[in-house]
Amino acid sequence: TPSAREPQETQGTPKATPSQGTPKAKPSQETLKAKPSQETLTEKPSQGTPKARPQAVAKPAMSYLEKKENDRVYRRLQKRVTEAETEIAATEAELAAMDARLASGDAAVVSDPAFYSAYDEKKQHLDHLMQQWEDAHGELESFTSEYMNNDDTV
Known about the structure:
Layout: H1 29-34, H2 38-41, H3 64-104, H4 107-110, H5 113-147
Helix pairs in contact: 3-5
């Protein structure tokens, strides 16, 4: 209920502004409770007691350009892993075909030293590809754990 000191405002009646010369009505107690005062919004630390700082400082949100760059690096690393896997699969298929030719017992293949040197080269190439895949996959995992969090899935 409005007190005798506070003028009652009716709906539809415009409030007077200071430029019109009539004073504004004081805000009600309910309005004061709903809005925090300017003092509570700009709390000043007391000089006697230092405020405790939070232990875990939240990371600031990534800017658009940072997120875009992270996504680009992530896609590049994923591409390297996928390309290595594809090349490994192709080399393994070639080696399987060479193994099948050796298992067939064909005299021309078994007695051909060039075939064995090509086979050894393919095996070394496969080892090299496996090392490339391990490096690329390690970089991808490291990047994902360091720069990508659960909120920023790609």
